[in-house]
Amino acid sequence: MGALLNWNISFVFVFMCTFYCGVFSSNSYHYKQQHTCKNVQKEFQELNIGDKSLVPDLPVHVAHLAVCHKGLHHPGQRLCCNNGTVDKYHTAANKYLMDSLHSGTAFLKKFLMDKLKDYEMVFLYRCIIDVLSTILTVVFLYRCIIDVLSTILTVVFLYRCIIDVLSTILTVVFLYCSIIDVLSTILTVVFLYRCIIDVLSTILTVVFLYRCIIDVLSTILSIAILHI
Predict the structure, then answer these.
(1) pLDDT, position 63
(2) pTM here?
């Protein structure tokens, strides 16, 4: 990429310099009799390459120029070009190339930025969906845990109710057994009392009979004594 960029810069640089050198050469030959570089200065300034003062007023020969001409190969050639002009040509060529690259890649840059925004939106949307999904999963699990705990509490409550019912039943049974025992005791006492009453009644009956027999015997003895 760097080599390609350097080659493009060199190509544009050489193209512009060749173009301007051709113009300058033409102007130099055209105004050879006047010995002036006014047209070159005018073009130099109008094209915003640099200040016209960088262009010589009269065509000159400068050796070792890398762009306008090869001084060593053309020792007698005079052009409206010097080292300062060459530097400005080089700067202008670089600017032209960079502007061309920027304008040529503006669409690609916009395309990439739009795709980046789309990716960011999709990524953000996906993150929101994942967060909501996680929240729903947590809520669902929380609900399941609540349902399980509710079921456990219901079972415990029912178990407690059953225990209370059984306890009540056992209490009732215990009271019933206690009542039965009391009644049994009462009945036993009543039975004993009845037996005692019967025994006493029998004794009284015997005593009464004994008394009657005594009375009868006493009467008989009295009558016997009277007859004697």
Answers:
(1) 66
(2) 0.34
